[in-house]
């Protein structure tokens, strides 16, 4: 067989079929399965959003190639939104539209780093970003985040890691997978540390629309002097407008960065989907109240999860924010993949009994896996499968970077983001259903510091 690119070949295939197989094994004895398999809204797009998408899709005005940087109407609408949210002087020249936030990240990475360069990330981290860098031949170094500190990074640790050769620090806030929300003051200090070392700060804010207070800017970086030479912001329209299938994201950066990204986009895709861009441009100002109501709904679901977890003294909620929560599970001698599969297939009390029974037979992790975190869709690239592939190869590099106890494993079919609780009804009704299947709403995983964690 002809040669494959080894940087791509070593990546694991999408693990969705394996996770869906877990769900198919569930017999329904504990009630309907709550599908939390992807970090997408558990409610539909607004009827006006759907109508605008239909109108623009049927228009010949959007069937040809468009501006590489994005439709002017969307760039202007989004720039106005960002300027208002952050109280900053942001214009359309600072905006580049991409096909989803994952594409925004890969374009950004390619614009500022090349094969052999290094980008710094926090650990746990958003899985898809690490695999993106790996297939580009860009090295990844990790700064650990302590569960005891709510998974917030320490500025001193980041500063120490910003050695020569580091091109950027990539952060996600609100965080995927931990749910940690980085305070504005912390982000400002991190930005200053990066700027002092001549390192870009990349901040993925896919979930910022689900922060509890819409009146408070998530940070002040866009108002800092010289931000265009040190900061790059990423965003996704998928979550807030409930249109992940239409693939729209955005980069906010200085014109020099936008120029480099335009070269990359011309080769990757030429332009993001045009009809969706036109529809979203209308929705940004028109659906502000609707989006605010969704923010409150997600907050209520988070409160429901907090209440349920408070009744489980052996399960510890370490962090929660926007779509995600991070939970410590109570089985120190059993690997999380086993627990995840049992919870998915059996649910609640029967799964608990099966785990306890297994615990008597297993005193060590049967499948030690490197730490990996789920993608924005917590299910579509499960950390455990990729970890399993690499562990099975006994890669010396994996062994060095990811100790035996450092595990992260989503229970994708039943576990991920709060926002993905699909059953209709109030937060209280959802809360009751979660309680009825306790343990089946968390992605179970082990953490580096000897703990066992799950992300919900």
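^ Assign residues to that structure.
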């Amino acid at each position: 067989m002809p040669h494959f690119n080894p940087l791509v070949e070593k990546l694991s295939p999408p693990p969705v079929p394996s996770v869906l197989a877990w769900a198919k094994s569930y017999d329904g004895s504990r009630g309907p399965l709550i599908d939390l398999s992807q970090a997408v809204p558990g409610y539909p797009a607004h009827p006006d959003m759907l109508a605008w998408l239909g109108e623009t899709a049927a228009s010949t005005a959007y069937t040809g190639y468009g501006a590489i940087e994005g439709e002017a109407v969307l760039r202007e609408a989004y720039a106005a939104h960002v300027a208002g949210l952050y109280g900053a002087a942001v214009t359309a020249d600072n905006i580049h539209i991409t096909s989803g936030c994952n594409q925004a990240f890969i374009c950004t990475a390619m614009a500022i780093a090349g094969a052999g360069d290094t980008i710094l990330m926090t650990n746990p981290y958003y899985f898809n970003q690490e695999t993106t860098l790996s297939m580009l031949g860009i090295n990844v170094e990790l700064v650990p985040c302590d569960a005891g500190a709510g998974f917030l990074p320490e500025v001193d640790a980041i500063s120490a890691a910003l050695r020569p050769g580091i091109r950027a620090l990539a952060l996600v806030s609100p965080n995927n997978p931990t749910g940690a929300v980085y305070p504005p003051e912390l982000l400002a200090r991190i930005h200053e540390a990066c700027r002092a070392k001549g390192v870009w700060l990349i901040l993925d804010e896919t979930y910022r629309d689900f922060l509890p207070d819409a009146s408070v800017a998530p940070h002040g970086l866009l108002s800092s002097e010289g931000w265009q030479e040190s900061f790059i912001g990423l965003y996704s329209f998928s979550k807030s407008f409930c249109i992940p299938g239409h693939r729209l994201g955005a980069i906010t950066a200085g014109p020099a960065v936008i120029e480099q990204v335009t070269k990359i986009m011309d080769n990757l895709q030429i332009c993001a989907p045009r009809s969706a861009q036109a529809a979203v441009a209308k929705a940004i100002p028109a659906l502000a109240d609707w989006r605010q109501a969704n923010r409150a709904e997600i907050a209520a679901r988070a409160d429901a999860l907090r209440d349920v977890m408070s009744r489980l003294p052996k399960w510890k909620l370490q962090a929660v924010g926007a779509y995600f929560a991070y939970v410590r599970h109570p089985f120190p001698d059993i690997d999380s993949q086993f627990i995840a599969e049992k919870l998915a297939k059996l649910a609640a009390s029967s799964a608990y009994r099966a785990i306890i029974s297994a615990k008597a037979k297993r005193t060590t992790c049967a499948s030690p896996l490197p730490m990996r975190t789920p993608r924005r869709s917590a299910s579509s690239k499960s950390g455990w499968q990729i970890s399993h592939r690499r562990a099975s190869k006994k890669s010396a590099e994996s062994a060095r970077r990811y100790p035996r106890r450092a595990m992260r494993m989503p229970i994708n079919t039943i576990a991920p983001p709060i926002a993905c609780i699909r059953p209709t009804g109030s937060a209280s009704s959802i809360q009751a259903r979660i309680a009825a299947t306790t343990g089946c709403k968390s992605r179970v995983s082990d953490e580096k510091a000897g703990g066992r964690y799950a992300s919900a």
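Residues 361-456 have pLDDT under 50 and may be disordered.
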